[in-house]
Specification:
There is one protein chain. The chain is mostly helical. It has helices at residues 12-17, 32-44, 50-57.
Length: 58
């Protein structure tokens, strides 16, 4: 079920939660939506590669 707020605007986190997670359940350490948000915020901060985003996220 899709939740809408503020006259039809879906929150970013909620829309990312709608993406199917293809990973094996027992191997998941973090939610997929959280990973996407960290990558997005890292990119918006000017970080260009995934290794530096992982360091920044820690």
């Amino acid at each position: 079920m899709v939740k809408f707020l503020l006259g039809g605007i879906m929150l970013l986190r909620e829309s990312l939660e709608e993406i199917d997670d293809f990973r094996v359940k027992r191997c998941r350490k973090f939610e997929l939506a959280d990973i996407f948000l960290l990558v997005l915020f890292g990119l918006l901060s000017g970080i260009k590669d995934i290794e530096h985003i992982a360091e920044w996220a820690e």
